[in-house]
Specification:
With 296 residues, the chain is of the alpha/beta class. 35% of the residues lie in helices and 18% in strands. A 6-stranded mixed sheet has the order 2-1-3-4-5-6, with helices on both faces. The chain binds pyridoxal-5'-phosphate.
């Protein structure tokens, strides 16, 4: 998508808590091709407005963001932009919970590895756009460069999509209950989940999402506690990735977001990210309680 939308000398704006791989792609690959970028807190419309230059061609939002679960008002940003295209990475929400094109975005990205595939057995991505021209250019590039999924991967993804709705409802039921449960523990400093009234983006999330998704980040009192929790769960597996039927836990600072260490996107070391699956809620809560008990 970036290869089609951007040319050397162009500038893009993206969020200060974007997925580490997105940062790595922009900072290492696209910067070498002469594309410049500014990292801002995208939840602040003023910050986006201040970062726009005459070369800005694209604003890239992640909402909810990975791993801070920050919420950016898509419609407000779309309204602000006059010229630059708005791209939304909708991976955390899935199309079942949020439809950025309807809110004014120009293009939407999903890692289909996550909720769309849903079973942690396929790697892929999709660009969704209302632009027939972009669609044509991307198809040409896919044909020319060969970046297409295998037939079997496409089959697995299509099969996953058939159960997206029922999986997402169960993911959200579990996550909403677990977020509230975690909030009650004195071992936990803060629970970052847009479904909680205490979340700064809750009002916007209520407007632009149908429900709040199943990614929860937890701040512990220090890094040792965060790591101890990650190592102590049994049902919830310690692994990267997210969005599958099985729950996963990880420590972003040393795992998914290791590539942003030392940059403005650095993730707090006391933060743990949990991808809540569709297992029995009581089993998940029992596992979380046992892991919390192991935290000093
Ligand atoms: C928000 C977000 N976008 C994109 C990706 C990239 O996905 P993939 O692993 O399918 O390349 C990830 C991966 O974790 C992600 O969390």
């Amino acid at each position: 998508l970036l290869r089609v939308l951007l040319r050397p000398g162009d500038h893009l704006i993206f969020g200060h808590d974007a997925y580490g791989g997105t940062f790595r792609l922009i900072d290492s690959v696209f910067a070498e091709w002469g594309i410049t970028y500014t990292v801002v807190d995208t939840t602040s419309t003023d910050a986006i407005a201040a970062a726009i230059t005459s070369d800005t061609k694209l604003v890239w939002l992640e909402t909810p963001s990975n791993p801070a679960l920050a919420i950016t008002d898509i419609a407000v940003v779309a309204e602000l932009l006059d010229g630059p295209q708005l791209v939304v990475d909708n991976t955390f929400a899935s199309p079942y919970l949020q439809n950025p094109l309807a809110l004014g975005a120009d293009h939407v990205l999903h890692s289909t590895t996550k909720y769309l595939g849903g079973h942690s057995d396929v790697v892929g991505g999709v660009v969704v756009t209302n632009s027939a021209k972009l669609d044509e250019e991307l198809a040409f590039l896919q044909g020319g460069a060969g970046a297409i999924p295998s037939v079997f991967d496409a089959y697995l993804t299509a099969r996953g999509i058939k159960t997206l709705a029922v999986r997402m409802d169960r993911h959200c039921d579990n996550a909403e209950a677990i977020a509230r449960h975690l909030q009650q523990s004195p071992k936990v400093k803060a629970v970052l989940y847009p479904g909680l009234e205490s979340h700064p983006g809750h009002e916007v999330a209520l407007r632009q999402m149908r429900r709040f998704g199943a990614m929860i980040s937890v701040r512990f009192h220090d890094e040792a506690a965060a790591r101890a929790f990650c190592l102590a769960t049994r049902l919830i597996c310690l692994a990267e990735s997210l969005g599958g039927v099985e729950s996963l836990v990880e420590h972003p600072a040393t795992m998914t977001h290791q590539s942003v260490t030392g940059s403005t996107l650095e993730v707090p070391r006391d933060l743990v990210r949990i991808s809540i699956g569709i297992e029995d809620l009581d089993d998940l809560i029992a596992d979380i309680d046992a892991a919390l008990a192991a935290v000093e």
